[in-house]
Amino acid sequence: MAFGYNGKILQVNLSSKTTSVLEPDEKWYRTYFGGSGFIGRFLLTEVSPQVDPLGPENVLIFACSVVTGAPFSGFNRYAVGAKSPLTGGFARTEAAGYFGPELKFAGYDAIIITGTADSPVYLWINDGKVEIRDGSGLWGLDNWETLERLREETGEQKVRVVSIGPAGERLIPFACLQNDLEHFNGRTGMGAVMGSKNLKAIAVRGTGKMEMADPEKVKELSKWHRERIKTHPPNVGLTKVGTPGLVQGVNAAGFLTTRNFKEGQFEGAEKLAAENYHNTIFASRGTCWHCTVACKRQVVLDDPQYPLDKRFGGPEYEALAALGALLAIDNLPAVAYGNQLCNLLGLDVISTGAVIAFAMECFEEGILTEADTEGKSIKFGDAQAMVWLIRRIAERKGIGEVLSRGVKKAAESIGRGAERYAFHIKGQELAFHDGRGKTGMGMGFALSPTGADHIETPHDVAFQGEGISKLYPMGLLDPVVPVKTDAAKVRFFYIGQKAWGINNLLGLCNFCSVPIHAMTFPKLVDTIQAITGWETSLYEIVLGVERANVMARVFNNRCGFTPDDDTLIRRWFEKMPSGPLKGAHFDPTEFRGWIQLYYDMSGWDTQGRPTPGKLVELGLDWLLEEPSEAV
Amino acid sequence: MAFGYNGKILQVNLSSKTTSVLEPDEKWYRTYFGGSGFIGRFLLTEVSPQVDPLGPENVLIFACSVVTGAPFSGFNRYAVGAKSPLTGGFARTEAAGYFGPELKFAGYDAIIITGTADSPVYLWINDGKVEIRDGSGLWGLDNWETLERLREETGEQKVRVVSIGPAGERLIPFACLQNDLEHFNGRTGMGAVMGSKNLKAIAVRGTGKMEMADPEKVKELSKWHRERIKTHPPNVGLTKVGTPGLVQGVNAAGFLTTRNFKEGQFEGAEKLAAENYHNTIFASRGTCWHCTVACKRQVVLDDPQYPLDKRFGGPEYEALAALGALLAIDNLPAVAYGNQLCNLLGLDVISTGAVIAFAMECFEEGILTEADTEGKSIKFGDAQAMVWLIRRIAERKGIGEVLSRGVKKAAESIGRGAERYAFHIKGQELAFHDGRGKTGMGMGFALSPTGADHIETPHDVAFQGEGISKLYPMGLLDPVVPVKTDAAKVRFFYIGQKAWGINNLLGLCNFCSVPIHAMTFPKLVDTIQAITGWETSLYEIVLGVERANVMARVFNNRCGFTPDDDTLIRRWFEKMPSGPLKGAHFDPTEFRGWIQLYYDMSGWDTQGRPTPGKLVELGLDWLLEEPSEAV
Fold first, then answer.
1. I need a labelling partner for B628 at 20 to 30 A (CA). Which of A189, A347, B202, B552 fits?
2. B612 contacts A477? CB cut-off 8 A
């Protein structure tokens, strides 16, 4: 090929304490690209679908891509995958920050971790050299303490660390990973998998240089991208107010998930929204490697009850919704403090908010009583109850132990009809976008291989009217009506999912990339070409996305998922009770039709299984179980 | 949209002698693009599948594209379509030359001709003005005489004329159209459809200018393309020796169709090949509008028996194979003269050669005797017999009347086992590439909606070893083995068919465009963007190709085609008897498996019908016959 991409993949066996290096050929890299592609590939070849997610046979994958670390805003994300302890199927979760590029500069595109250490360890990757070090001294520390300790132990102030908090150590199935205290691989419980392996952290230092196939072109494109970010309205907004800027609009449109998904508007939304945020707790902007957008917020509050420290990451939109609207809490310092606790303890704030909302609704419905809660009242709107519950969950104590299993298993354990209030898809709690108001995103929640994931689904609202022009290069010419569900919406979702999937394949940030933000499809293709030297195309890249999607689907099918798992929560089949979307809902029968139509579009059979033709088209012939019969 | 593409489509009703103009919106143009897209769209909406191809209800479509006439080599082709009198299904046939750009400069992207004139007419399109003129004086003239007469009648020496010869007037189902005497819409019998409408010719003069969205970029890209043509090896070869340059290589490789597809090598090939051609009959190079390649050959011979006139077009590869190797004739002047006759009389030289080969083999097998042939011997190798048969076919007299029906119907009429020697797919005679030697092209013959078409099928031989790098942007990374048939070959065909289909969608010449010749996928995308102003992508363009393919398929299905029609000729299921490909053949059972795998890849059901999901994906919801049930 034009440019000799010669990457390395680090393999670490924690049981035998050995490491080795894979060097796939360029064709392999051009087939799987990175992120979702690497994870799909390794899960299917290295993990039996029957394994216990928290057993030594599970494999934990850290995946950059062929372009991670190139000097462009947003080219910094890495994905983590395994079999999920939360869903029992395909897990993948991305984070930004500095860890991904650092890993690349240390010489590795990915890390494949197998086995389980017999006592706590951490990995120390120093410019290609790898040590499996004793981590006993780190066990029990929160993420901040862990980072500080690793700076000391490695002697590198600039070390980049991904770690788990006590939640991961305690195998909470929605425990997350963090890096640099404000970037999180939040979903699908990868913290528990890391904890189950007795792996507290991975510390990386890399000083290598990434070679560019066409350095001049890279410079030119990077400059273009940087300049565009400064003027492209959605990016200007993110720079100015970050994701908290979404609260007001989402609430006004009526799909801000409120009181455990019952309502779409929250009367206290204004207190959580950007203006109040910036007037009260905002301290400074945070950013990621080489990013001009700098959408991160850092917060400070000198308050005895809810002290906020700017090192620990300010709440984003999802946290404001999770611990705010969903719980009907309008106390912004409390929400920010709850978020900070989750960050330090290593709990996914989305699932944590959802499990607390579930508990609060159960309490209000009399399904849980003070007999279950150590005598505490845990009603909607109670900020102290929220903070108390976060601590109890992280400790896995009392009601916290029940809730720490996630809403699905907590409801099973509680019984008494609690499952009526346990909102999850495939076992994973939902992110906070009411699908009744953006039905394309609703389909995305239903069809995401990881369960209800907002990172891989197209946002209907951005494609109304002239907004659809952003998707012209993907062949979509019809403006989208967010609340409508029809065949055109299924097509929008089908194609939009591929547009978004590019970012998860290549490790790009949605906030810097296609289709909404400061990247265009033609410039992205040029950029990938300038970095890799591959004369590529949007067609080839989308084929990579579809390949990754199909691998995830096949893994889930092998784990026993069926079309019944591609569903929505009860509340979205019921009419929105109030607000601008009053009456909006999915019709259950129609919804099954849309799912089948999506299968049909995807080249999947009526059971949601990719056909032999689809596998062959994608070069996934190796997934044909009975190749000679099947074709 | 970014650039207001505001084209016009001319509608002509020959029954009522009225004309009108359609002005589709830009979204329509961006959905159907041109060529194969326009034809699919209009056949499905304007033609009932039940119509008599030679009746007034058939519709004849001339289609340029949104980029036809842009100043690039090869951006000059137009397609002609209708229901085919040869196959009874979807017809489409492209030609280059000057007619397409001239039509655009006259203000029209396409012409839709309906009805039948009660006496011969011709169309005179003069910069947007349209006249349906009396053509009685033209009836019976050959193509040369017709052109001369129309220059006089219009008073325009620079008039561009598409016309039919006597073959079209006599409704021979493989009669062709020509323009400028050396460019032919050869296949699928469009000459007969034009004849059935009493339409002898269309004369066009256009002096308008085509607006470019980004004239500077167009200039830059056009210059790049022109310069690349001068150095890109396949183009250098075409410039130097034209398509006759193929004869030697095809013969050496063993897939030069010889003696009615019996063999793959012809002992007299050298006499037909480029060197002898250039030493004996070559006069000058011909070209098409704005083309730097100039692959056309013009020939001259001052010979009483086989006089050659440079105005009438020299034989191309297909003609050399059709009237040479296929008939075992190595007399180059005779072959060139036979080709010249076909050109003037308006017979498709491919079908003409095939029907003569059929007759010769029937004669040698004793199925036809001198009782059928007015006492003449018509054996393989007999040049005089070939010339005599061409004349008899054009006259539809004697054995010529039988043969003029095409091999399929001729064999039915002859009986006596003649169908064993009648080689066609879907009723259309094959172009001259033995599928046993390039199995991807074999699949293309089987699956082409028009029956055995070499213009829309990937040539396996160009993609061996490093050659596959041309198709990297289409996601194909594995080198092709021409003679092998396996799942990888089906994928190669499936994707390669889309790569080739771009040229039929946009009216580009295969010899200037992707994937083999002096255009690359990235530059092509840039070029379309610079011309139209559309921020497009290879993904969007390929979606357009697939849309066109699916429309053609649906039309054929509605005409009653079934999977049994997606087949190969008997001889290709039998072992190649000799030469380097000795023993090569398609296994009939395996072959059915590949066809089913292709359906599966395509999102078609086991009966070869596009699924509702595929139709919706492509925005062809209007083809769902029972939309509410089907989804």
1. B552
2. no
Asked whether residue B417 falls in the same domain as residue B445, the answer is no
B539 vs A539: CB contact, 8 Å cut-off? yes
Q: Is the pLDDT of residue B630 over 70?
A: no
**In chain B, % of residues over pLDDT 70:** 98
Question: How distant is the alpha carbon of residue A149 from its chain centre?
Answer: 27
B412 and B449 housed in the same domain: no
Cα A229 from chain centroid?
23
- Which run of H or E residues covers position A598? helix A588-602
Is the peptide bond between A515 and the residue preceding it cis, with omega within 30 degrees of 0?
Answer: yes
A77 contact partners, CB below 8 Å, separation of at least 6? A35, A68, A94, A95, A96, A100, A503, A507, A508, A509
What is the structure's pLDDT at B1? 39
The pLDDT score that the predictor gives to residue B627 is 33
In chain A, how many domains are there? 3
Question: Tell me, what's the pLDDT at B2?
Answer: 40
The answer to the question of residue A305 being in a domain is: yes
| Structure tokens belonging to residue A578 | 């109030």
**CATH code of the domain in which B274 resides:** 1.10.569.10
- What's the whole-number mean pLDDT along residues B606-625? 95
CA distance A481 to A458: 13
Q: Which residue of B has its CA nearest to A478?
A: B27
Q: Which of B469, B474, B490 sits opposite A539 (nearest CB)?
A: B474
Q: What is the CATH number of the domain that holds A518?
A: 1.10.599.10
Q: How would you classify the pairing of strands A110-114 and A9-13?
A: parallel
* Domain identity same for A161 and A280: no
Q: Specify the pLDDT at position A485.
A: 87
Q: What do you get for the CA distance between the two ends of chain A, in Å?
A: 31
Domain interval for residue A351: 236-422
B481 and B552 assigned to the same domain? yes
B369 and B496, same structural domain? no
Each residue's pLDDT tens digit, A487-535: 999 999 999 999 999 999 999 999 999 999 999 999 999 999 999 999 9
Cβ–Cβ < 8 Å for B406, B53: no
B511 neighbors B238 (Cβ within 8 angstroms): yes
Interface pTM (ipTM) of the complex? 0.96
Which of A389, A422, A455 is the C-terminal boundary of a domain? A422
Are residues B300 and B158 part of one domain? Answer: no
Residue numbers of chain A with a pLDDT score lower than 70? 1-4, 626-631
Q: Same domain, yes or no, for A393 and A527? A: no
Q: Count CA atoms within 13 Å of residue A323 on its CB side.
A: 30
Q: Are A71 and A35 contained in the same domain? A: yes
B84 falls within a domain: yes
3-state secondary structure (DSSP) of residue B568: coil
Instruction: Report yes or no: A346 and A191 within 8 Å, Cβ to Cβ.
Output: yes
Q: Closest approach of chain A CAs to the CA of B123, in angstroms?
A: 36
